[in-house]
Design a protein that fits this description.
single chain, 301 residues, alpha/beta, TIM Barrel, Alpha-Beta Plaits, 9-stranded mixed beta sheet, 33% helix
Length: 301
Amino acid sequence: MASGVIYNIQRYSTHDGPGIRTTVFMKGCPLACWWCHNPEGRDIKPDHSIAASRCIGCGECEEACPEGAALLTPDGPIVDLDHCIHCGACAEVCPTEARSLIGREISVDELMLEVGKDRIFYEESGGGVTFSGGEPLMQLEFLLAALEACRESCYHTVVDTSGSASMDTLERVAAEADLLLFDLKHMDDAVHRRYVGASNVQILENLSQLAKMGQDVWVRLPLIPGVNDDEQNIDATATFLASLEKQYPLHLLPYHRVGSDKYRRLGKPYPMAGLEPPSEEQTAVIAEHMRSYGIEVRIGG
């Protein structure tokens, strides 16, 4: 039985494809975007999260940890990541849920029981199931098995991807999914490497190939002030999209700080601290400029 590692199942989602959807967030991602609002999705292993304000200093976590990695300090609870084996023992005994383990293994059958609870909403709204992350393509066999199970249940399926995978992998997923949400970050490879941690060459080639195949795609551009919202990159992005053999709608996703507190709980630095989101006016100007290239532009998911 195929199984995968997920960290959340979000019900009643309206920003991850058409209609009302259930979004399955899968762990593991090959990229390291500075603005990532789901840092708990990067590592395929479970992540240790700490809500220090909930800690009452009872010490039960220290006693339960088999490796001595769950520690209490004068500044609050911490985890020694060099020794933590992600067993979850400390989280299980914490009476206030100050400690939690993010990520769990789930079978396709178990997943289908979960998403099946929302069938009526899919049918009434034209929604379905979206696989997001992280990067779902990193758990390819589980993803394909889940997509097949959704198809057998007549659920519309969406896969949200960075496009950072082999074309063979994308083709296999595209053959099973009804729609791909394809993220673009930056057109300049050097800038892409700096802020995303990988080249964009394969990503752009993959999107071009998907267009040649006629695959249904919504392109999404996270709008990050000072990173990819300059006129040169906006023009380069619009020119590239306008040149594709199939024209795709573009969704502008203005930067937000919703996920910034997750970094603190995970014990990780937030690279975009202090960055202000773009104003509605700035976003509207960029959207209108890109429409001048003949592209259908929407603001939001």
